[in-house]
Design goal:
Strand order of the largest sheet: 3-4-5-6-7-8-9-10
Structural class: alpha/beta
Number of domains: 1
Order of helices and strands: EEEHEHEHEHEHEHHEHHHEHHH
CATH architecture: Alpha-Beta Barrel
Number of strands: 10
CATH class: Alpha Beta
Helix content: 40-55%
Number of helices: 13
Oligomer: single chain
Distance between the termini: 30 Å
């Protein structure tokens, strides 16, 4: 396993991490989750990502139970949660958002579900138009000073909002956000590569990126349609299918097919190659994986070695095919 610093902080995360989105508490039970986390740990993964809203809190309960059952040393792993959407479906106003109250309540609820005394990383899952950024910065600073959170960050905030949070923190000598969690893959590159580009040096921003496979589109399994046993074929993920395939003008499926062809030419599994591409970016602190089977996880972990076998010329062809 390779380990990378989280931006300019001293925290080192595994270059590949493991997340619970749309799997734990939905597709997977505790037994399957235990096997996956054990395999991830055995391969050197030290960061496990979660959020209050995943399976309405059940994903965090499953992860917390499994980590406790495996008796992983607390000083050997990092665990995250995210706050904004809430853990209660159609909850009341105080059960979502980034108000001081919900940030406080959600943090303590995540600690209980994950069965830990503190969160290593705590993210604002989306910007909250109804809460001043200053209020959220102060709330996060309090949690850090209380020892409930070690590093806080954002997820899918724009560059201006991140800069504003840093400016508020500097003005009041508060803890500023350390990291951002954006989507990043061959079909979704603009924000990480262009919008955030000045922030890496100016603010020391780290990134823990999600959806390296574009929700499965870059695995090749949707090249000829939607298999009946796939996640996108399930009724509860109809919203995700619309997001994955996108607007026809984006040509996402055509670009994904072109990528699959390049992967076959190189003799590399498309999923492995897509993750290896994400790892090439030095501003990516960790790529979050989401597997439902041990075989998937092992194939994804192969990305660490695969990247070294692909020539600069071949990477250029891959990028041209998906442009």
């Amino acid at each position: 396993m390779e380990y990378r610093r989280l931006g300019s902080s001293g925290l080192k995360l595994s270059a590949l991490s493991f997340g619970a989105w749309v799997t734990f508490g939905n597709q997977l039970g505790r037994g399957e989750a235990r096997e996956l986390i054990a395999a991830a740990w055995d391969h050197g993964i030290n960061f496990f990502d979660n959020a209050e809203t995943y399976a309405e809190g059940e994903a965090e309960r499953v992860m917390g139970d499994v980590i406790a059952d495996l008796r992983l040393p607390r000083d050997g792993f990092c665990v995250s949660s995210k706050v904004f959407f809430g853990a209660v479906k159609d909850g009341r106003p105080t059960q979502k958002g980034l108000s001081r109250k919900h940030v406080h309540d959600a943090c303590h609820a995540a600690l209980r579900r994950l069965r830990v005394d503190y969160l290593d990383l705590y993210y604002c899952h989306r910007p909250d138009p109804d809460t001043p950024i200053a209020e959220t910065v102060w709330a996060m600073d309090v949690l850090i000073r209380q020892g409930k959170v070690l590093y806080w960050g954002t997820s899918e905030w724009d560059a201006g909002q991140i800069r504003e949070a840093h400016a508020i923190a500097r003005a009041h000598r508060l803890h500023a956000p350390t990291m951002e969690q954006p989507q990043y893959n061959l079909l979704h590159r603009e924000r990480v590569e262009r919008e955030y580009a000045p922030l890496y040096a100016d603010l020391g921003l780290g990134t823990t990126t999600w959806s390296p496979l574009a929700s499965g589109l870059l695995t090749g399994k949707y090249d000829d349609g939607v298999p009946a046993d796939s996640r996108l074929a399930q009724e509860q993920y109809a919203w995700l299918q619309r997001s994955v395939f996108g607007d026809p003008a984006e040509r996402r499926r055509e670009r994904a097919r072109a990528f699959s062809a390049q992967a076959r030419h190189l003799g590399i599994a498309p999923a492995t190659l897509a993750i290896a591409w994400c790892l090439r970016n030095p501003h990516v602190s960790s790529v979050i994986l989401g597997a439902t089977r041990i075989e998937q996880l092992r194939q994804n972990l192969d990305a660490l070695a695969v990247g070294e076998r692909v020539s600069p010329e071949d990477w250029a062809l891959i990028e041209a095919a998906t442009a």
